Amino acid sequence: MRGIRQFSFLLGIGCLMSFFVLASAIADEGRGSRHGNDFDSSDDDSTQHRNRHRQSHRNRHGEQSVGAVEDPTYKEQCGACHFVYQPALLPSGSWHKIISNLEDHNGNNVAIEEAAKNTIAEYLTNNAAENSSGELATLITQSLLGETPMRITEIPYIRRKHHDIPKDVFQRESVGSSSNCVACHFTAEQGIYDDDFVRIPE
Ligand code: HEC
Ligand code: HEC
Predict the structure, then answer these.
(1) I want to staple 149 with a disulfide (CB 3.0 to 4.6 A). Which of 8, 34, 93, 154 is the partner?
(2) What's the 61 CA to ligand 1 centre distance in angstroms?
């Protein structure tokens, strides 16, 4: 009789303990799922969606950047007629072709002293798309499949990104041509081409 009572007492304690273990495991799981969201613990679907959206923008922001142009010789010599394109926007093979054909550069004879030309060539090829890290440089390299176009605007990835813009937009006086990146990408000088920082001028 005493043996049975003792047994059911122990059984009761056992049940109680497993209940606490189970309860704390459930509570932990609840906390764990909230950890998935860095911003707040709201379970509202739309808030979570907004937060995820904001976070992905923040992550992409830096990655779509190719940095600002740093070489003073390149800026001075090549910035006379147009925006100075970041070296990571083209592969080294393209820069090599462009520098080798400056006497016939888009209808212009670009005359640059040999020493300056070598400095520019070195800067452009050392920092070319395939020699740069970051998402934009990588996307450019991947989309080229080894091709070396003379224009950034001929890169498949870049073409794809501008596919939906009507042709006449590029002909507007405020834009001039598709080569005038800075007309729409107002952060282009810092090397930021993220679509959060685009405004097509009237
Ligand atoms: C005398 C004026 C002039 C100078 C100096 C000049 N360019 Fe150009 N460049 C042009 C013109 C014009 C275009 C064509 C722009 C257009 O189609 O709107 C062009 C286009 C380009 C493009 C293609 C842009 C695109 O559409 O993707 C690159 C790259 C380029 N130039 C690099 C250079 C480099 C590198 C230098 C210096 C070594 C340089 N340019 C100096 C006049 C010049
Ligand atoms: C007429 C305005 C205009 C000009 C000029 C222009 N772009 Fe754009 N670009 C846009 C717009 C608008 C988008 C966003 C397209 C979209 O929403 O997918 C874009 C998208 C991009 C993207 C993709 C950004 C992202 O977040 O996915 C890159 C990279 C880019 N442009 C680079 C360039 C470069 C380099 C030049 C110059 C050679 C240039 N663009 C010239 C308007 C322009």
Answers:
(1) 154
(2) 27
What are 26-77's pLDDT values in tens digits?
A: 444 433 333 333 323 333 444 344 444 434 343 444 556 899 999 999 999 9
Q: Whose CA is nearest to atom 41 of ligand 2?
A: 181
Atom index in ligand 1 nearest the CA of residue 177 equals 18
Cα distance between the two ends of the chain: 95
Q: Is the CB of 68 under 6 A from ligand 2?
A: no
* Contacts (Cβ under 8 Å, ≥6 apart) of 115: none
Question: 138 CB under 6 A from ligand 2?
Answer: no
Q: Give whole-number Cα distances, 76 to 103, 135, 152, 176, in Å.
A: 18, 28, 20, 22
- With CA atoms as reference, report the closest residue to 88 among 67, 104, 105, 71: 67
Half-sphere exposure (Cβ direction) of 174: Cα atoms closer than 13 Å: 9
